[in-house]
Amino acid sequence: MARRILLLITDLEIGGTPTVVRELAIRLNHPPERIVAVACLAGRGPVAGQLEAHGIQVVALGAKGPIDFRIVPRLIRLIRGGGGQVGFDTVLSFLVHANTVAAAASMACRSVRFVQSIQTTQPSPAWHWRLQAIVQRAADVVVVPSQSVAVVAQRWALIPLQKIVVIPNAVDVVGMAMPSPPDRKLRRPGRTVGFLGRLDPIKRIPDLIEAIALLDGSIGLEIFGDGSQREKIEAMISRLELGHRVRMHGAVTSPVDALARMDLLALPSSAEGFGLVLIEAMAAGVAVVATNVAGIRDVVRDQKTGLLVPVASPQLLAQAIRRVLDDSNLRARLVASAHKEVRERFDWAAVLPQYRKLLGLDTTV
Fold first, then answer.
1. Binning pLDDT at 50, 70 and 90, where does residue 201 land?
2. Are 46 and 22 within 8 A, CB to CB?
């Protein structure tokens, strides 16, 4: 009998975890008789359409807030099936809100296997971790993308080590290939730094803008993404009179399109569970400069596959950016080593079998 797997996530907006869920769903839905669906707590987002384009059923549960327990009965009905709908024997939930709703539903779905995923090392809000410590009891296994997340999951959510499985996030290395060299018609004259991700305080984008201000005028910054910090970032760009060097593009549906417009990707976050954008850049042949924090250290090896700098250090960030852009030999070495590393460790060909084993699927694709 084909397994019936439901992937549950908080939202399907553009972002790292929704991207992981999208790619995992598409790959697990092969061969055709296997049933994989995706549900989100909130309303539909852009990733929903991308999933449906691949024949993946998407259900938006319509939560009105972060923890709207009125959606629990809807989730239970979805899991159980009935009324012409097929139910599920496995639920894999992502992030604390989805983990919480899944845990509540598990009390009415005793025969279903529940697996949870934690994707962050961010210490705040602390109540997220206290809540996760409670809801993890409903999970058979807790999946994390890195050893850094495994450490904090044990420390802050009190999850037993034997219950944690580390499966890294992944990228389609072949699919990330860009023309070589990338299309320079898309770039401003000079050397281009890029940021790609949600405009969230944890990303510390103002540090990157300050670093750009310290560099010479030939170096520009392209910011791809949207989020709560957009107005603050725009105000900073205006205040520093950097409008001619820093451009904001909003969210993009394809990371390749954004990466094609940069020579270097910068990620100045104060915390990351993994940093999917890092392996996207590494696969695409874009040099990486990031902060030396948990999660990022699991992905980027300092001086070997990228350069790492202390968090909240715009001057050191600027120095690292200048070093990579000025030294073509260094940049070529970092890019080549990074591409080899991502191909061996983070390509879906290496990661998908780990998920298939976890979910009890056969080992052939």
1. very high
2. no
pLDDT digits (tens, 9 = 90+) for 107-144: 999 999 999 999 999 999 999 999 999 999 999 999 99
Return the amino acid letter for 271: A
* pLDDT of residue 82 exceeding 90: no
Long-range contacts of 234-242 (CB under 8 A, 24+ apart): 236/206, 236/209, 237/209, 240/209, 240/210, 240/213, 242/209, 242/212, 242/213
Joined together, the tokens standing for residue 191 give 């050397």
Task: Extract the tokens encoding 183.
Answer: 């299309």
Please name which of 177, 73, 169, 67 lies closest in space to residue 125, comparing C-alpha atoms. Answer: 67
Query: For helices 205-214 and 230-239, what crossing angle results, to 10°?
Result: 20
Residues 22, 9: Cα–Cα separation, whole Å: 10
Cβ atoms < 10 Å from Cβ of 179? 8
Q: Which domains does the chain have, with CATH numbers?
A: 4-170+348-358 (3.40.50.2000), 174-345 (3.40.50.2000)
DSSP assignment string, 290-335 = EE--TTTTTT--BTTTBEEE-TT-HHHHHHHHHHHHH-HHHHHHHH
Provide the sign of the torsion angle of the four alpha carbons 327, 333, 334, 339, taken in this order. Answer: positive
Q: Which helix (H) or strand (E) holds 142?
A: strand 141-144
Q: How many CB atoms lie within 10 A of CB 304?
A: 12
Tokens found for residue 149: 């997340």
| Per-residue pLDDT reduced to its tens digit, 21-46 | 999 999 998 766 678 999 999 989 99
Q: Is the peptide bond before 179 cis (omega within 30 degrees of 0)?
A: no
Encode burial over 225-247: b for 16+ CB neighbours within 10 A, e otherwise. Answer: bbbebbeebeebbeeeebeebbb
279-322 tens-digit pLDDT: 999 999 999 999 999 999 999 999 999 999 999 999 999 999 99
Residue 2 pLDDT exceeds 90: no
Total residues belonging to the chain? 365
Quote the mean pLDDT of the chain. 92
- Per-residue pLDDT at 177: 80
